[in-house]
Amino acid sequence: MDIQELSKQLKRANPAMVYLVLGTQAVLQQEAKDVFLNLIPEEERVMNVGSYDMETTPLADALDDAMAAPFFGERRLVILNKPAFLTGGTSRGALKQDGEVLREYLKHPQPTTVLVLLAPYEKLDGRKGVVKDLKKLAVEVSAAPLDEPRARRLVEQRFQADGYQLGRGAIDELVRRTNADYGKMMAAVPVIELAVYQDKRVTDAAVAGLVPQSLDENVFDLVQAVLNREQVEAVRLYRELLESQQAPLQINAILVSQFRLLLQIKVLSNRGLSQGTLAGQLKVHPYRVKLGLQTARRFSMDDLSHAYLGLIRCERALKSTQQDPELLFQLFLLQYTKQKVS
């Protein structure tokens, strides 16, 4: 289930004894934690809420707390943060945990305790016995990164719940500037709301003025200018990146990665892979795949490969010579345009 379903379920019925919140979206992990905290009246939280970092606290200590009866309240809430022992690896310096302790607890969980495991990982190691036992008993809540439509819908709902009107194109601009990253979108909401508090109307111009465009998004605009052979615009965008203190090698590296992604999307989409499958195989956000598909369909494999190889040569020159980076980029543009003409 997702966070909204969790919230609705907990309002309708008593909570389960064990929950697993799995996924790498930090803002969703926090939202889930807030939902569980609401199970405990604020005046009882000091005595009936325990939160433990599994990288520094022995698992046995946390589960001892879970076994305790609530103190003058209906239930206890015990949260296990970052249970890396459920995955295939552990963080450097993290405390080694004995998963068998949790397996024993799961056999007879304390009925007056809600045990929540906040696991900020893509997946757990399903080969481990403790993971198998956990999956059988725990209610799983997804904190995986949201796709664009879902992220857009939740942000729209947040603005509307706060009493703000959305102008045409406002959410589109927010999606574009944050690469549809739900965490970045939600972080921008209070900034935007504060700025337009008087008329409570969110416009695309307000979003553009308040939400900085990411480096990846700036480079995406540069990629479009390169592919469209818009040399003046491409040089202007490149110069802006240099003026914003971006290192030439970093700019070039992101350009290379963008064109590499476009080539991968072009090849795999020609084999019939869907947008969702592409995102999974390439391990990139679905929104980036959506934009990549739009671009890859408009340009040939030769267009994309010539640009990619030209940028590789530009990278070599940046590393091996003292030539001006902007001059090297202009040379790349001239050679790229010449290949198209010929």
UniProtKB/TrEMBL annotation:
GO BP of this protein: DNA-templated DNA replication
The keyword Nucleotidyltransferase appears for this protein: yes
Limits of the DNA polymerase III delta subunit-like C-terminal domain: 217-336
PANTHER family: DNA POLYMERASE III SUBUNIT DELTA
InterPro entries per record: DNA_pol3_clamp-load_cplx_C, DNA_pol3_delta-like_C, DNA_pol3_delta_N, DNA_polIII_delta, P-loop_NTPase
Domain DNA polymerase III delta N-terminal intervals: 19-143
Catalytic activity: DNA(n) + a 2'-deoxyribonucleoside 5'-triphosphate = DNA(n+1) + diphosphate
Stated family: Belongs to the DNA polymerase HolA subunit family.
Keyword vocabulary terms for this entry: DNA replication, DNA-directed DNA polymerase, Nucleotidyltransferase, Transferase
Protein name from the UniProt record: DNA polymerase III subunit delta
Nucleotidyltransferase recorded as keyword: yes
SUPFAM superfamilies according to UniProt: P-loop containing nucleoside triphosphate hydrolases, post-AAA+ oligomerization domain-like
GO cellular component annotations of the record: DNA polymerase III complex
GO molecular function: DNA binding; DNA-directed DNA polymerase activity
UniProt-listed Enzyme Commission number(s): 2.7.7.7
